[in-house]
User: What shape does this take?
Amino acid sequence: MLLLRDGVLSLSLMSEARAVEDLCEELRRRAGTASRVDLWVPEELTIGNAPEPKNPTGLGMALIVDTALSLGLMPDGFTQGAGGRTYHYKSE
Assistant: This one.
């Protein structure tokens, strides 16, 4: 699907998932199919069906980035959007 977000046109599958586990699973499904993966991450996440703790640890994003790294995807910046960010990852 082609997406136009913040003035940038990209080939991406946007996820409305709010669970960290779902976002990690989306990365697993998409790893290896493209040289670049764009993952929409909403501001509010859940972990294990519970709201992510509201503290500065960023546990949800740590789990997402760890999954990306384990799949050979390297962080390549992000684009701020309304209600969240699109994180960009590229294959090693």
